[in-house]
Write a structure and sequence with these properties.
Chain lengths: ~170, ~475, ~1050
């Protein structure tokens, strides 16, 4: 997500294989790749773009633990401190009976937390409008985009032609 | 990923699709005006739903006395339907989660619809605990929130409360999982749409761009959610089974229930998926994405789980006899040969016998057979829940209190109403969202598209050649 | 309220001063008459919308009015309440008055519990030497009649309102000009009332008083006159008898004085010494299964027409002579053995018969005489006055009426048009009588046929006395001022006979009469008190007074039994006979207007709301129980009796004589309020006269096959047997017929279903007294197993907690329980348990907190019976508590399983998880507490849902919540009484004693089968009972730790009797 307007040059490819080669080339030629857009996750792309592995699962674990504690301590407090009631001859603090709820709350917290985190860090969410370079990116085109301010426009132009981009164009976003 | 899949596997996408065709095929149903069959189905569903709403209002106004439950049988159709729907609600998450973990590519064809089904089924299920109570206007007592009544908390020892937590968690997680999967496809729809539709789908797609980083996070999220959903889906029906297993009533109080219920849930869930998918692929012309191969794989699952359920039934009978516990023995004798013998044998036939037909590859791959048997199985699973709940209660410890139960029109009406609700939701879903996960299909096109599956074609030819030689 | 200073109550000094208009205000505000407007007005009652508010308004009013009325009027007359003086009436504190329940000849000495001046509950009076604090279902339910919306609210003429002055004038003139006046009444046991009738005899010419009983005992009375020269009923000492033989006399259920007899009977039925267990043997010779029969050790089955033959046969065996009367072989064989056993127990035996045939009763007297029972088990010191009716006199009256020889007829507290057996003839006769006056409480077939209705108050609004047995006197005092413009019949008679002419509006005149009568007639008979006032006060306080007489009355037997032997009627040879019996709750229709009794299931049949035809059921020797004509429970059949056809539903009745059917009297009322009208079939029209005596069976009867199912089959128990045994046709050995029947169980609504393993269930333990030790060993083995299992648990419960403070528990002695059902009605009264009606009962929606399960065991053809009162067991490991999601039910530190109604959401999970199935759910708005009239199910097609009117609600116990729709309820161990008792003990600064806390069922029980108390109180009654090795816990192996102990059912059956 870019706040300042960017002048972008990008090429559209028809197939993820071609895209991958192009990206590989672009790296060899030390072009600053702004971003790659694709209609589906293209495997093998992340290392080329040296994207760090996502840490979502770690956050998931943290949220989960939070849930575990909330549920277990909550029930413990309610049944032993806040309002102890004799129920069916069970002790106030009947741990085995707590297990199901503890588990469910754990999962609930983890799931909600992770999804929320995902949308927030990705800057996605209801009503968010992200300008997109080409409508066909979500259909069958694979897009390799460069920020003109960071690369030499002619070189990139030439590079894109060579790498087999079906279309090349520029846009100011 | 190509490496993972053996090249002689049957293709999951036929008709030599290109990426664009996939988009065309899967998005167009949301763009065209509804077909006649859709419209008819919708009218029927909605009228059923309205009748159900009427019956619910009737119940709340006149009291549970309008049902035929009695001093001995406190739960009948209400909780039977509840468990039945919950069971159906298990296939979706199972397909999307467990099959994702097992890297079963064929899930991509059906997971979207299956998850949708899950969500709608859980909605139907969640309805019953709400309305089966004597005082529906105070059900909020269930929720543990600080209140002015003490605060007075719910009873965390009660399996019914565990249910509340399990089902709400399951619903939430399924919803998130499903929607997160939908976001990229909504983006696809958005980018083809014009005017107001574009605005709507822009909102729904959360501004998805398809950026590499997003895809990476998206995949990570899907995987971890799947990891969470797997134990969850198993826990939900386990907890539902605790409603009975933790009681003291012979026929309920059995340790076999959790696995037995889960198997039954998957069983009925897949059957319902079959029923729906067979109709959907016909009506929306998705034969290329939901292939006979898909159907066959699901039939295999039905066969396995059906057999597990069968074993569970027999185990129950054996244990009843072997335990030497008179109440247990009497309870199971009554189940099989008591006043409700018809329900028991209906269950036995539909759940244990009927799936065995799937041993035959011909039947497994026959659309008609599959459709018919999937419905039989769902009837059977309804019987199973009825047998467990009503039959067991009707004759428990004290012979003086034994009684019999049969529903009133109100109870039947509410059940029909939930069917209406379910199909109404599903039909709307087929109009607003791609019923097959576009991105995922595109993702596996290279590995599972027929035009790429040379090895498979070769194998086929080889096989036919050998045939001809013989 | 007269403003005399002598009055012991005054509300303020205006009250004492002569402030006329204040007095007037008080009058119009609180005068009972104003109640009439408030309650008679349909508007109030039918406006359901404002029900609760009206109710509160009424409560407020009731409190004021009743406190003033009951609290002021009575002390003016120096009525003395039982516990505290009424001028100490405190809102929220109950006041008890000693009084008596009298209905026809039925009698019970009672305490009336009033709250804010409203009588709400009846308890037994421990001081009574007759009932010893016991009650019956009828007594318990009688308080509801006080608030019956169908009561007469004022005198009537031709069905239209008339005021007393005019009525008295017109009736007085009519009597004056009448050539002959007849006063017809049910048996009157009140000396003072009889005196008032004498005044009539004195005042007018040719006055006769005829008494008759709705179920006739004339045969017995006439026989005694013949044998002993006195037309009365002797004192039966069931406690002194070792062998009791009853020929169809249901002395535990309906015969003469059941409460008294049950009390005595049970003394010899309890096991006192375990090492050498002894108990009396009770042999019942009867047709269908009666309450007494179900409690008997051996039953000898005879056809109704064979009763005479059976008596004659026994007579020949004991006294001598010979009889040619045919009798079935089985019975003969058994009676031979019975005869020898009787001879062994000569002087310690007792033979009674319910027959209404003079000659048969003479033979019974002869038998008892020969056995030397007179003076031992039968005495004449305190002869019973509870039945005096004469069939001949009744028949004579009917004749006179039809010949137009009767000018005026006064009918007191009787319903001859329905129950006299002369119904039609009597009705026609009444049309020939110039003046007919009915003195009664509620409309009946008779009252609507009378010109004048002199509305009488309920017994709880009346003054009176009773002498049920010679020398046993008791008083009746009002516990509330008359709710309506009514007048006691005694007072009416006094008025008409001119005894009291002045101040007619003064309701006190009969009180004055009564008092002076006692001063003149009763006071001299005793020598305990010197001053009459102390005597009177004492009697009023105790409710009873016994006149000791030193000399024992002797009556020498001088019966002409040989002649009688010849007069015994021959058994018919018809292959189907029907026997009419008086059902325990209904009597012969006197009680059918009472919803509580209508809803109370017949103890033996377990059906409510209607009379069900009991048909014999037999084991087919292979695998089926087959009813007569293949009839199943709930089938509708046409029964042709003589020339009349009735369509009645069927119940298969174990122990019913093959070739006979039984049907209860007292149903099919045409005018009996909303509860009784049109329920069941009226048999009185089929009662014939035999040698001038009403005969309660019919030999010309046909029963069709099933004509479909009854629409609302209102039985509360569908499975009746507990592992009955029968002979297998092939092998010839005795098998568990229940189990066999299961193999080919007939499916459907009323299926026998699977009955196997029942005998292995730890629900009922029973034994024969002869092998008691073995049975005990077996039981204890089972209990040990259970205990062992119960130790395997992850939690160790709250034992240490329950050892401190109170731990409430109960003990039920299955040997003492005769199944009469008094406790169930008492529970309804105490705990505001709603009446739900036939339709709801048929859907198993009955709300009873306490039910009495009835199982047959032993020989399938001729079984024994066990009654098991079943209520919430207050388990310490209560399964219901664990499963309630909202904590609506949980455990008190005193071991009570508590229900919190306003927290209950109504998932019914607790009810499902209750092994004893004692939790009840409010399916509809049975208490009519809800604002939607749509929720309220009519009990018997009535316009205003039952209980929706303020009058009926006056009976509600203010200490117990009235449950709304959609919540679960159940037995609370009468927690309100527990709290009351604890408070009392605390106020008096002492430890809690047994007497302080007694549950409603416990106080109601005539045999003391139920003991409630604190298990931690080692000195208490309960702890003593709990020590008995006979005890067991139902479903012990489920480890719910029930707080209710049952004691093994022991019978003294003689297995050789039939071989």
């Amino acid at each position: 997500m870019s706040f300042a307007k960017k002048d972008i040059i990008y090429g559209l490819y028809d197939d993820e294989e071609i895209l991958l080669n192009a990206v590989r080339k672009a790296k060899e030629m030390h072009f600053e790749i702004m971003d790659v857009y694709s209609p589906f996750p293209v495997h093998g792309l992340d290392p080329l773009l040296d994207l760090a592995e996502s840490r979502l699962h770690i956050t998931g674990f943290v949220y989960g633990m939070l849930g575990t504690l909330t549920a277990f301590l909550g029930m413990t407090w309610i049944f032993t401190k806040d309002w102890p009631i004799i129920i069916g001859g069970k002790p106030y603090w009947s741990v085995p009976a707590f297990i199901p709820i503890v588990f469910e709350v754990t999962v609930l917290f983890a799931a909600i937390g992770m999804v929320a985190t995902f949308y927030i860090v990705s800057g996605l969410g209801p009503g968010v409008v992200n300008p997109c370079l080409d409508d066909r990116i979500t259909d069958d085109k694979f897009c390799l985009a460069f920020d003109k301010s960071e690369v030499d426009e002619e070189e990139v132009q030439r590079f894109l032609e060579d790498s087999g981009a079906s279309e090349i164009s520029s846009k100011i976003l | 990923m190509g490496a993972v899949v053996s090249s002689i596997r049957e293709p999951l996408i036929t008709g030599s699709k290109t990426y664009h065709q996939i988009t065309e095929d899967l998005v167009s149903p949301t763009e065209k005006t509804p077909s006649v069959s859709w419209t008819l189905g919708f009218i029927v569903s909605v009228s059923l739903l309205l009748f159900g709403v009427f019956c619910i209002l009737w119940t709340i106004w006149h009291g549970i006395g309008t049902w035929n439950l009695n001093r001995t049988v406190g739960w009948g159709w209400d909780i039977t339907n509840f468990v039945w729907w919950i069971g159906i609600g298990h296939a979706g998450t199972l397909i999307s989660a467990i099959l994702l973990l097992f890297r079963q590519k064929w899930r991509t064809g059906v997971n979207r619809a299956a998850e949708a089904m899950t969500i709608f089924a859980v909605i139907c299920a969640a309805l019953f605990p709400g309305i089966h109570v004597g005082r529906a206007w105070v059900v909020f007592y269930f929720f543990p929130y600080p209140n002015t009544r003490g605060p007075l908390w719910p009873n965390f020892n009660s399996p019914l409360l565990w249910d509340l937590f399990a089902i709400s968690t399951y619903f939430t997680v399924s919803l998130l999982f499903w929607y997160t999967g939908l976001v990229p496809d909504f983006a696809t729809v958005r980018d083809r749409a014009k005017g107001f539709r574009k605005k709507v789908y822009n909102f729904l797609s959360f501004g998805w761009t398809g950026s590499a980083k997003h895809w990476q996070r998206w995949e990570a999220l899907s995987l971890v959610l799947a990891g969470l959903a797997t134990p969850l889906v198993l826990s939900v029906h386990t907890i539902v089974s605790f409603d009975f297993a933790t009681s003291v009533i012979p026929g309920w109080h059995t340790t076999i229930f959790p696995p037995y219920f889960v198997a039954g849930a998957i069983f009925s869930g897949f059957a319902m998926v079959q029923t729906l998918m067979l109709v959907t692929r016909k009506v929306l012309k998705l034969e290329d994405y939901i292939t006979i191969g898909h159907i066959e794989s699901m039939n295999k699952v039905i066969l396995v789980t059906g057999t597990i359920v069968g074993v569970a039934y027999l185990t129950e009978l054996f244990v009843a006899w072997y335990s030497g516990y008179v109440y247990e023995q009497a309870a199971f004798f009554n189940r099989a040969l008591g006043p409700y013998w018809w329900a028991y044998f209906g269950m036995m036939f539909c759940n244990v016998v009927s799936p065995q037909f799937f041993w035959s590859k011909k039947i497994r791959r026959s659309v008609i057979w599959t459709f018919f048997l999937s419905i039989v199985v769902n009837i059977g699973m309804w019987f199973e829940r009825f047998v467990i709940i009503a039959t067991t209660l009707a004759r428990d410890y004290l012979p003086s209190s034994w009684s019999y139960y049969s529903p009133t029109w109100v109870e039947i009406g509410i059940y029909l109403g939930t069917l209406g609700l379910f199909f109404t939701c599903y039909l709307i879903f087929t109009r607003v969202a791609p019923v097959v996960a576009i991105a995922e299909i595109k993702h596996i096109l290279k590995s599972s598209g027929d035009q790429y599956a040379k090895g498979y074609k070769a194998a086929q030819q080889e096989a036919s050649r050998i045939e001809s030689v013989k | 309220m007269k403003n005399d200073i002598s009055k012991s109550i005054w509300i303020g000094e205006q009250d004492l001063s002569e402030d006329k208009d204040f007095a007037a205000k008080v009058q119009e505000e609180f005068a009972p008459v104003s109640l009439v407007e408030r309650l008679g007005d349909e508007g109030v009652a039918s406006s359901l919308g404002g029900n609760r508010r009206d109710f509160l308004k009424f409560l407020g009013f009731g409190l004021g009015a009743a406190t003033i009325a009951a609290g002021c009027d009575i002390p003016v007359k120096r009525a003395i309440p039982y516990v505290v003086k009424p001028d100490e009436i405190v809102p929220g504190v109950a006041t008890y008055y000693a009084s008596s329940y009298v209905r026809g000849g039925d009698y019970c000495s009672i305490l009336v519990k009033t709250r804010e001046g409203r009588p709400i509950k009846i308890e037994g009076n421990d001081l009574s030497p007759i009932t010893h604090g016991g009650t019956s279902a009828r007594v318990q339910a009688s308080v509801l009649d006080l608030y019956d919306t169908h009561r007469f609210k004022h005198p009537l003429k031709e069905g239209r309102k008339i005021d007393w002055q005019n009525l008295d004038e017109e009736v007085g003139n009519a009597f004056g000009s009448a050539g002959s006046i007849r006063i017809l009444s049910s048996t009157i046991i009140s000396p003072a009332a009889l005196k008032t009738i004498e005044t009539m005899v004195g005042a007018y010419s040719n006055v006769e008083h005829i008494q008759y009983d709705s179920v006739s005992y004339a045969g017995l009375l006439d026989a005694n006159e013949d044998s002993f020269g006195m037309r009365s009923i002797p004192d039966y000492h069931f406690d002194k008898a070792e062998v009791i033989v009853s020929f169809g006399a249901d002395f535990l259920g309906t015969w003469i004085s059941p409460v008294e007899y049950a009390k005595k009977y049970i003394i010899n039925r309890r096991i006192k010494n375990l090492d050498n267990p002894m108990m009396s043997r009770h042999i019942q010779v009867e047709t269908g299964m009666s309450l007494s029969g179900s409690n008997a050790d051996n039953r000898i089955m005879v056809k109704p027409s064979e009763h005479g033959a059976a008596i004659a046969y026994l007579y020949t065996k004991i006294v001598g002579g010979s009889t040619s009367l045919a009798l079935n072989e089985k019975a003969k064989m058994a009676l031979d053995k019975v005869a020898s056993q009787l001879k062994v127990a000569a002087g310690k035996s007792l033979v009674v018969a319910g027959s209404n045939d003079k000659s048969e009763q003479i033979l019974i007297n002869a038998i008892n005489n020969t056995l030397g029972n007179y003076g031992n088990t039968i005495t004449w010191d305190h002869t019973s006055m509870q039945r005096k009716g004469s069939d001949q006199a009744l028949a004579k009256l009917v004749g006179e009426m039809n010949n137009g020889q009767v000018d005026a007829l006064v009918i007191i507290d009787a319903n001859p048009v329905y129950d006299s057996g002369h119904g039609e003839a009597f009705k026609m006769g009444m049309e020939k009588v110039k003046t007919t006056v009915a003195c009664c409480l509620i409309p009946s077939e008779t009252s609507i046929a009378c010109q004048y209705v002199a509305a009488t108050p309920h017994i709880l609004e009346s003054w009176g006395d009773a002498e049920p047995k010679k020398g046993h006197l008791s008083l009746i005092q009002p516990t509330i001022a008359p709710l309506f413009d009514t007048r006691q019949f005694e007072e009416s008679l006094l008025t008409w006979s001119g005894e009291i002419k002045e101040n007619l509006d003064d309701k006190s005149s009969y009180y004055e009469f009564l008092k002076s009568f006692w001063e003149a007639e009763v006071f001299p008979r005793q020598n305990k008190f010197a001053s009459f006032n102390t005597f009177w006060d004492n009697c009023l306080h105790d409710g009873v007074f016994t006149i000791e007489s030193d000399e024992t009355a002797v009556a020498n037997y001088s019966g002409n039994d040989q002649a009688a032997l010849g007069m015994v009627s021959k058994p018919s040879n018809s292959d189907l006979e029907i026997s009419f019996y008086e059902s325990v709750p209904m009597g012969n229709g006197e009680f059918s207007s009472n919803p509580w009794l209508m809803e109370m299931p017949d103890p033996v049949l377990r059906t409510s709301w209607g009379n069900y035809l009991a048909v014999p059921v037999s084991f087919n020797g292979v695998n089926k129980f087959i009813g007569l004509n293949n009839l199943k429970d709930g089938d509708l059949v046409d029964v042709t009796i003589g020339d009349k056809v009735f369509s009645v539903p069927v119940m298969q009745q174990f122990g019913q004589m093959p070739g006979t059917v039984s049907l209860a009297l007292g149903f099919g009322r045409r005018e009996a309020g909303f509860a009784g009208t049109g329920i069941g079939a009226d048999l009185n029209t089929s009662v014939q006269l035999n040698k001038g005596y009403r005969q309660y069976y019919h030999t010309n009867v046909m029963v069709t096959g099933t004509k479909g199912k009854e629409k609302y089959f209102s039985s509360v128990q569908y499975h009746h047997t507990f592992g009955v045994k029968a002979e297998d046709k092939k092998s010839g050995e005795i098998i568990n017929a229940d189990e066999a029947a299961a193999i080919s169980a007939t499916y459907g609504l009323v299926s026998q279903g699977y009955q196997g393993f029942l005998t292995d269930r730890s629900i009922i333990y029973n034994s024969n007294v002869n092998n008691l030790q073995d049975s005990l060993a077996h039981m204890h083995e089972r209990r040990e197993e259970a205990k062992h299992l119960n130790e395997q648990q992850i939690y160790n419960g709250y034992d240490e907690l329950y050892t401190q403070g109170h731990h409430w528990g109960m003990h039920v002695d299955l040997n003492a329980c005769i199944g009469c059902g008094a406790c169930t009605v008492a529970c309804m009264a105490e705990n505001n348990v709603p009446v739900v009606g036939k339709r709801e009962v048929s859907r198993h929606h009955e709300m009873t907190w306490l039910r009495i399960d009835r199982y047959y065991y032993g020989d399938a053809e001729n079984p024994n019976t066990v009654y098991q009162p079943m209520m919430c067991q207050h388990c310490d490991n209560a399964p219901c508590e664990n499963v309630c999601p909202v904590n609506a039910t949980n455990h008190s530190t005193e071991g009570l399983n508590q229900m919190t109604y306003n927290r209950c959401v109504g998932t019914r999970y607790c009810a499902n998880n209750c092994p004893y199935k004692v939790r009840r759910f409010n399916w509809s708005d049975y208490t009519t507490a809800d604002i939607f009239p749509a929720n309220q199910v009519p009990v018997n097609g009535e316009k205003i849902p039952y209980g929706a009117d303020n009058l009926t609600r006056m009976v509600l116990n203010p200490d117990v919540t009235v449950r709304a729709r959609g919540v679960i309820e159940k037995c609370s161990f009468c927690v309100q009484r527990i709290q009351e008792g604890k408070l009392l003990a605390k106020k008096e600064g002492r430890k809690l004693q047994d007497r302080d806390v007694r549950s409603a069922c416990q106080t109601a029980c005539p045999t003391g089968a139920i003991t409630f108390g604190d298990m931690n109180n080692k000195e208490g009654q309960l702890s003593k009972k709990l020590d008995s090795p006979l005890n067991y816990i139902v479903l012990e192996e489920v480890n719910v730790r029930s707080s209710v102990n049952y004691s093994m059912k022991v019978n003294n059956r003689d297995e050789n009797l039939y071989s």
